[in-house]
Every structure is written in C-alpha cells, then in structure tokens.
Amino acid sequence: MKLDPKSTRSLNFFTAQMTSISRAGIIGLVVLGLILAGGIYALIVQVVDGHIVTGMRDNVVWGIYIANFIFFIGISYAGALISGILHLLRVPWRAPIIRIAEMITVISTIIGPTYILLCMGRLDRLHHLALFGRIQSPILWDVLAISTYLMGSIIFLYLASIRDLSALRSYPFKSKWRTKLYKFLSVDFNGNTVQNQYLDRALNIMSSIIIPLAILVHSVLAWIFGMTLRPGWHSTIFAPYFVIAAVFSGTGVLIIAMWVFRKVYHLESYITKIHFNYLGIILMILGALYAYFTFSEYLTSWYGSETWEMEVLYKLFDYNEYWWWFFFAAIVGVLLPIIVILFPRFRSINSITAVSVVAVMALWVKRYLIIIPTLETPLLPLQDMRPEYIHYTVTPIEWLLTFAGIAMFILLFFLFSKFLPIVNVVKVAEGRSYGTLREIVANKLLKRQIRELKLKEHQKFAH
Amino acid sequence: MNSGYKQFLLLALIAFVPAFAILAQDTLMSASRIQAAYYKDQAGQERIVAKLLIKKERYEPLSNTEIQFFAVADTSNVLLGKMMTDDKGEAVYILEEDDKAYSDSTGQIAFVISYEGSPTTKDASKDIQVKAADLKVSFFQEDTAKFISIEAFEKEPSGAAMPIADLEIGLFVKGTFSHLPLVKEVTGADGKLIVPFPVELPGDTLGNLTIVAKIEDNDVYGNVEAWGRINWADPVELTSEARRGLGDTDAPLWMVYTLIVLLSAVWLHYAYVIYLIIKIKLSKHLA
To answer: Is the domain defined by A5-432 classed in CATH 3.40.190.10?
Structure first.
C-alpha cells in the first residue's frame, strides 16, 4: 500500500516505538511481572485451599471478583460505544483515539470474565454451562452476550487495523516474523477502490452492530441483579443505569489511557488538548446522566420505605459502615468531574485526566457497593452469626488477584502497542486534521468579532 | 422401752414391709389400655384395629409392642394371631375366612384383644363383638330425578342375606383429602336408604362423583364402608395456569425464539463481515 509522506512520517515514528523499549519501560514491565507473579501465587493458594482464602462465605457469596468483573465489562464500553458512534458520525477528531478505545474494549472484555472463573467454586463443572445451560437464566444470557461481544470487538479492532497492517507489511522490519504476520493479517490490502469499498462496508456494519450489542451486554449484566428480588438490586432502571455507568467509566479509562500513551510515547502532536476537551465534555454529560440515575434509584428506594430496601440504605448512610464509600462513589466521583469540566478555566489535560481517575475509582467503588451491602442484608435471618458470615472483608488473596488483573490489563495494552501503532496512522494522515477544525472555529470566532467591531464603529459613526 | 413393745414393732415391720413393697411396685407400674374397633371395606376385607395406650401424664400410644388377638370359642379363647404395634400404637389383625368359624348361631363373633404387660406396665385387654354386615351403593333415575340407593344387610349362618332395618348410615362424597358429609339417615324396614343424588356438586372433568356409605362405630356391626361411582355430577373444566417456565428445564418459547433471532442476526453479520474480508483478499488485483 502506497503511503503519502505524512503517513510515512507517522509510520516511521510509531515503528520506532514498536521495536524499542526504554529503561522506564523495562522497569514498568518488571513491576507488572512482579504483580502478576503475586497474582499467580494467589491463584495457586486459592485453587489449593479453596475459597476459604477469600472473604466470600455462604451469606456474602459474591465479592470483589464480581465487582472487578462488572468494572472491566463496563470500561469495555470505551471502544464499543465511543469508537462505534464516532465512526458512524464521521467525527473528524476520532482517528488518533479510536484505536486506544478499541484496544480497551478487547482487553477488558478478555480480563473481565476471568474474574467470574475466579469466583466459581467448581471450575471443573464449567462445561456444564454449555451442556445443561438454561436459556431462561440471565447467567447464560451473560455468557452468550459477552462471548458475542468479544468476538464483535475483535473483528471491529481487526477491521479498523487492516489499513495500518497493510502499511506495516511494507515496512522493512528487522525481524521477519513481524513482516510475515503483518502480511497475513493485512489480507493483501493495497488500498484499491474495491478493497476500500469492502472495508468501509464491513466497518460500517460492525460499528452499527457493536453499539446495540454493547448496550445489550451491560443490560444483561444488570438483569443478573435486577431480576432477583433482593433489596438494592430489584430495580427496573438497573439496565440503563448500568449502561450509563459503563460508558461513564469507559470514557474515564479512555482519557487516562490517552494521557498515559501521550506521555510515554510522546504523542503530543497526535493527541491534543482538543481530544481531552471533547472527551471531557462527553464525560461530564455522562456524569450528569449517571447522577440523575443514581438520585432516581436511591430516591425511589428510600421513598418506598420497604423494610429490606431500607436496611440496605441504612447501611449505605451509616458512618460505621459504607457512608464514606457511598459519599465518594455517588457524590465526589460524580460532582467533581462535572464541576471541573463545566468551567473552562479548570479545564486542562491534567485536570481532565485527574477527574477521570476519580470518576473511574468512584465507579469501581460503586460496583462494590452494589454487590456487598445487598448480600450483607439477607432476606432470611441468619442462624450462624459469626462476624465473617455477616460482613464481607476483602482478603489479601483477593487484593492480589485484583491487582494482577489491572497489571494484566496494562501489560496487554503495552504488548498491543508493540504490535500495532497506538494511533491509527493511515486514518490520521487521510483524515481531516483536528488542527484544521480548530483553525476553522478560530476563524469563525475572529470573523464574528470583526463583524461586531464593525457594527459598533458603524453605530458610533451614526451617533 | 420395754421388750413387749419392741416385739410388737418387729412383728409389725415383718408384716407390713412386703405389703408396702407390693403396693409400691404396683404404684410404680404404668396403667395400660386397649381400644379396638372392627372395620370392613368395599372389597369385603375385615380387620380389627387395636390401639395400645400407656398412662404417663396422660394416655400415650405404646409402639413396638406385641398384642394378641383371640376369638372366643365355646370353651376357651383361641389365639388368632400376634401383632406388633406401630408408631401410633396400632396393631391390625386381618380376619381370615377360617376365623368366621368361631361365630355363634346369630353370626356374631367375639374377640379378645390382650396385652400381657411388662415389668413396668400393667396388662390390659378388650372384648369386642361384631356381626358382619354389608353395604351396597347403587344409583337409579326416575324421570329427571336421580337417586342414591343404599342397601344394608347381614348374612345368616345359612348364607341368606337379611336386610338390616333402623341402621344409621352416613353418606359422603369422596374428596382428595377428606370426605364431604352429605346426609346421615336410618334404613327402612327393607334395609334400604334412598336419598337424592347431589347433581349440583362438582365432579371431575367427566362429572364423576364417588358416593361413600358408612356404618360408623355401630355396637353390633362396627365400621363398614362401601362406595359407588357415577358421572351425574357437574363436570369441571380444568383451567391450567399459564406456565412460566423459568423454574422448569424448558424455557418459555418466546425467550428461546428471541435469543435465537438475536444471536443469529449478530452472528450472520459477523459471517458476512468475514466474507467481506475474504473479498478484500480476492480483490487485490482490481483497480
């Protein structure tokens, strides 16, 4: 595939990063490796000793693993919705961030379900799900939806990478395996009109499918909770609430990933403030929607005053139980991003990233608060009143496996970035530059100011 | 104390201690009681059900204990059988055809049910006399009116059936868990009892109703039961509740179809996209 000079410059820039690693990168890899080793140790302990090493018991049967599962599936929305919508709407500034979003989707959809496996007591019966699965069970819907979603996300990422794979195929890499792999994966794409038509058609189809699919996946996840009759879970708005929370956290993770790659790979000329501003505004709108759903959810529960619902609410508002967690998840994590992004004077790359970190952490805490307080409020009185049966506490083994999941997420991202440019090289060169857009906006503003000045002068002259 | 007085006390002790011991032992032993009744069912099976009770704070059933069933013959009691009581303290003896040989000239048989007692329980026995009776349930219709006819009769030693007059008979409708009482009346001189059929009562889906006739706790005939079945009642249509399917192995059909349609739609699009990727590969030489 023939590239214009701009694309060639970009390709050279990214291939240099793909084939080398800095000292800081090596240190980072060692740290990630150590965390993963800790996770492997924790996994062995859990497999050998059983789930007694976790904080889960007969009463609180789900813990931090399920919170992690929902969290990772949630952030997978970054790719599905953001890249899908931006692609369909032909948003001009999408090109530099779209691949990061798609990578988040694929990696988090791979890591998320592994927490389900960690949560299962009888992994040897995993195949029973396929053999004896009941179609009316939301658990089976979840398995089907997530596997379909993962497949769709991989196809979408692959399709969006074909042009870059084709460009990489022609690049003179030292290692031959790379050239062979790129040659195979680029399906002999050379950018002719017919191939471009086919590729665009495939991309349009996938970006159209991936959006409802992503909504369905998170709705199904919400229905696992909503279709039970447990306090704090049985809610008709749980599905849209989960979807909004997922896009909110997904956008936050996308902003954080953009900030990290911008710093590490020096992508200042590709990922600019305008990307952070636009995504920040999306984050703010989603934050407002999320706040609306949160308020609606808790107001309805509180107003109904149902005994068991109130027990959960009292736990959330109790200073000795979950109040500070709740305060952080439902108030700080929502209001802070809105306030910071709403006022242009607070808006900067760093501030937007910082509030994204707060939002993402708040959303993780929120998932924890969805699961634990409800399970600590059983519908039947407990017979065995040992404290560990009533209250759930995260054990070091669970923390190790949680951090191992995050480390794996970062590691896979790093490995992906060594295989594919983190920015869509060909599209960035082909597409309308965000700088031009900025210039257009600036020109329009300038023209308006000139017009207003002329009008004032005219009025002054008339007097 | 003088020696005469001492001798008197010694003699008194010798005389009264065994008596006190016997009295004390007698007081420590629990009283027992036997309840017994005779039953005859539709198939003609006759049985004596005896219940053994032991007095603690009140009378309670004594289980796993042997009870003997005797027939009273001319000169002595003849042992018919020994049965063990169950958890309810009940022991059942099913009469055999040979046992009827102990009946007297009127056809009545006397039974003695006895419990021999134990070191801690007193013995007990119960006498009952019964005369075998039969009930026959039939149905007939006059014009539009429908009736139940009950015939009660006893068999003489000669084998002839004799109607039983002035015998109280209870009529019931058989239900799943209990019997619904209809009427309790006495038979006429011809041993018959005729009552209107309760056509307004709901039957099964075909209108079947089972009428049960009972002689209950009669001093002469004991307990006799017979039944008849006819489809004169009001048929009831069974309205089965709509199945939810969520708790069954079979999912609701709409759910199955929805899932198949949704999954097929998505995966067919995937297949089409893969087909487009193949087309891209095949179009490498096109302009």
So the answer is: no
